[in-house]
Each structure stands twice: as structure tokens, then as C-alpha cells.
Amino acid sequence: MTDPRTALVVGGGIAGPAAAMALQKAGIDSVVYEAHAASAEGSGTFLTLATNGVSALRVLGADQPAIAAGFATTASVLWSGTGKRLGAAAVSMTLDDGTTGYTLKRADLYKSMHDQAVSRGIRIEHGKRLLAAETDGGMVLARFADGAEATGDILIGCDGIHSAVRPIIDPGAPGPDYAGLINLGGYVRGVRVSADPGTYHMIFGKRAFFGYAVAPDGEVWWFANVPEPGEPARGSLAAISTGQWRQRLVGLFADDAGPATRLIEATSHDLAASPVHTMPRLPTWHSGRMIVIGDAAHAPSPTSGQGASLAIEDAVLLGKCLRDLPGPDQAFATFEWLRRPRAERVIKQGARINNNKAATGAARIIRDTMMPAMLPIYVRFIANGKPGKQLYGHHIDWDAPASPIQE
Ligand SMILES: Cc1cc2nc3c(=O)[nH]c(=O)nc-3n(C[C@H](O)[C@H](O)[C@H](O)COP(=O)(O)OP(=O)(O)OC[C@H]3O[C@@H](n4cnc5c(N)ncnc54)[C@H](O)[C@@H]3O)c2cc1C
Questions:
Q1: How far is the CA of 353 from the centre of ligand 1 (A)?
Q2: Sheet holding 6-10, edge to edge
Q3: CA 26, CA 398: separation in Å to the nearest integer?
Q4: Residues near 322 by Cβ (< 8 Å), separated by ≥ 6?
Q5: Which one of 64, 74, 160, 375 is least enclosed by Cβ atoms within 10 Å?
Q6: pLDDT by residue (tens digit) across 35-53?
Q7: What is the per-residue pLDDT across 245-263, written as a single tens digit (0 to 9) for each?
């Protein structure tokens, strides 16, 4: 296959605009097709952009606008529902050059990525929900729900965990797994909590998990993970009103120490709940002229705090592979070979934390007893040791040539 000159990027969330910017650096023109009519769906919650994500954005020259919308978060303190301090852990790692992790509203990160891409002349078309794609005469032909079609040399699926591109690449590919948790979050002013800005407080409550951090302007950002063994039917959570959620959350956290119930009661905006999903291992990420990256390929649990960062790293490395390797098949194979071990390591870590969050009964008592002893070892191991450096210190050197796959 010849080197691609044009690309169709499906999905305008985080991986999509990042991929378009990386492709542009590699000399490939692309158009981003986003299903949502206005801007990409940003939902009300927030996320952490880890140091490795900031570093990947920096390769694209897109880090400053993104982090300007958030605040540095470096530490988290873990508590049991009884108010026992279980330990402290790094949220991300502060690198030697001072790069640190940030917390930012999902919608702000989406907007920043979108605006950066558009300011570089990249076209983002909204209201374009991909339905089908096929390879035709050495080109990819994409069809959208509004009847439009587009062609390009390659197609990059950045369409998230419920990807439409994934089953086009591999009709036998598994779909997302439900993690047994529902996520909700909110923002509230005027409630006093004893916490330093930039530190997360995570409470392994008796019945559910609660986390909060104070922004430098005093606003408290909180989230809750509610165990729900059966996967809710799609759309069913939207039918639950804010009042009903508030009442349920207050009940769930009523017996826990900490400010959860005060924060929930004082939150005046609508609460939107979403089920937490992860992606099982895909047999392959690419076929012919199409590939999936970001959550579409390897969504880790939100608990890992790495989904957005991995998506940005993917975009940068894919740009490099397409720049340096002859033809999309070799570029895609090398990309997957280089990326898969890292993505799978992060997924494994996130899944372990999810199990702790969903613990009830005896498992909860064992967790609360073991954690104070185990956590310092774990923190030293993950945050300060080699695994932490591998996770947070990961840097993609844009100028170094991408090495071809080695069997
Ligand atoms: C509650 C929650 C908390 C999280 N917390 C963190 C965190 O703290 N840190 C972190 O790094 N990550 C976190 N994540 C994960 C992170 O949000 C994702 O990993 C990241 O958004 C993945 O980026 P993406 O571009 O691959 O997918 P997405 O951001 O999901 O973007 C996919 C885009 O594709 C569009 N799309 C979908 N289908 C189509 C179609 N058929 N045609 C065209 N467009 C389509 C969507 O509208 C969307 O804009 C969290 C996720 C959740 C749900």
C-alpha cells in the first residue's frame, strides 16, 4: 500500500482532534467527523489528565490551553467510611521538569482539543454519525447517518467505547464490559470542607465510593461510584430524576464519615449518571486501511485516570508510525505492537481498583483492614518506583524515527 495522504477521523472527542493534529504534523490531511450536532458530548463530569497525557499533548503543542482550564492535582488521601485514614497516594507523578497531572472538566478538555484542531485549519464536521465504511479501489468510503459520504486513504476510528468502527474492522470484536458501577458527579460552592486545593479525598464508603477535590477558586468537585450489579438498560438512567438520585446518594452515604451528604445536598445542578464500562481485549485494532485508537480500542476503567491520556498518546504515536513506515498496513501493525502492552497494563491496574470500590460485606472489612498496611507498599511500588515512572514518565519522542515491528 502507498503512503496515505488523506485520512477520515471518526469521532471528535479527545483521540480524534489529537489524531488530526498528529497527522497534520506527519504531513497527512484529515477531516474529523463527529456524531454530535454541536460540540462533542462532554457530559457533566471531570477527569484527570495525567503527566503522561500532558507530555503527549506537549508534543502536539496543545498542552497549555488544555491545562489552563484545569488545576494541578498531585495527591490523593484515601479514607474508609468510618473515617479511618487508609493512606495517601500520588494521583499522578510530578516529573523532573515540573510537569504534573491536572483535573479538568471533561467539556473543557473536549473544547480545548476541538479549538486547537480548528485553529490549525483542521475541518471538524458535526452531525456526522458514521454508520458504515468499506474499502473501495484503495480508498475508504465512509457513510454517515445523514446520507453524506466521504472518502480518504485511511480511516481512524476515534469513536469511543461504543465504537461503530470497531465492528467494521472486526465483526467478531467484543463489545464493552459493564464494570458494575454507576458514576455521577457534581460541582458545588459555599460548602466548607477541610481539604487543600489539588488533593483528592477518596472515601471507600460502606455502600458506595465518594471522591472530591477543591478547585483553587473554592468550588468543590465531587464524584460518586455506586455499585449496581446488573447493567442498566441503555437510556434507563436518564429516566431517573435529579431529586431521585440525590435522595438515593444521600441514603447511600448517610452512615459514612466525611462531607459526602453535605456536598450532594448542596449541589443545585442536574445530576447525570452513566454506567462505567471497560473494553475487553480486542483480537486486533486494525484491518486494511482502518484502525481504532483511544477508548474504541482499549478503554481502561475511569478509575485508572488514564483513558484520556492513553488516547492522546495513541494519537501521537500513530502519527509517527504513519510518518515513518511505508504504507498503512505496516504503520498500523507497528503501532499496535508498540501500544498494546502499555494499554493492557493500565487496564489491569484500573480493574483492580474497581474491585475495591465495589467491595461490600466481608470483602469491604478485609479491604479496610488490609489497605493501611498494603497501601504504603503499593504507593512506593506504583508511584515512586519503576512502574510509576513507566506509567507517568512515558514520553513520545516525535523526532526519533518509529522502529518497524520486530517479530
Ligand atoms: C465517568 C468517567 C470518568 C473518567 N475519568 C477519567 C479520568 O479521570 N482520566 C482519564 O484519563 N480518563 C477518564 N475517563 C475516560 C476518558 O474520558 C476516555 O478514556 C476518553 O474520553 C477517551 O477518548 P476518546 O476520544 O477515545 O473517546 P471519547 O472521548 O468517548 O470520544 C468519542 C467521540 O466519538 C463520537 N462518536 C461516537 N460514535 C460516533 C460515530 N458513529 N460517528 C461519529 N462520531 C462518533 C462521540 O460523540 C465522541 O465525541 C473517564 C470516563 C468516564 C466515563
A1: 20
A2: 123-126, 29-34, 6-10, 154-157, 290-292, 286-287
A3: 10
A4: 3, 4, 23, 26, 28, 154, 328, 331
A5: 64
A6: 999 765 555 689 999 999 9
A7: 999 999 999 999 999 999 9
pLDDT value at position 257?
A: 96
Cell of 177: 464490559
Q: What is the pLDDT of residue 137?
A: 82
Do 198 and 218 touch, CB atoms closer than 8 A? Answer: no
Read off the C-alpha cell for 258.
Answer: 466525611
Spatial distance between the Cα atoms of 42 and 62, rounded to a whole number of angstroms: 19
Angle at 117 between CA 114 and CA 120, to 5 degrees: 145
Residues 205 and 86: beta-carbon distance below 8 Å: no
Place of cell 485549519: 121
Q: Return the ligand 1 atom nearest residue 299 CA.
A: 19
d(CA 104, CA 85): 26
Measured CA to CA, the distance from residue 80 to residue 82 in angstroms comes to 5
Q: Is the beta carbon of 274 within 6 A of some atom in ligand 1?
A: yes
Q: Dump pLDDT digits (tens) for 206-239.
A: 999 999 999 999 999 999 999 999 999 988 998 9
Decide whether any atom of ligand 1 lies within 6 Å of the 309 Cβ: yes
Q: Which of 392, 372, 406 is nearest to 78 (CA)?
A: 372
CA 159 to ligand 1: nearest atom:
34
Q: Could you give the CA distance from residue 17 to residue 312 in angstroms, rounded to a whole number? A: 9
CA pair distance 330, 343, nearest whole angstrom? 20
CB of 211 closer than 6 angstroms to any ligand 1 atom: no
DSSP string, 52-104: HHHHHHHHTT-HHHHHHTSEE--EEEEEETTS-EEEEEESS---TT----EEE
Decide: 44 in ligand 1 pocket, CB within 6 A: no
Global pTM? 0.92
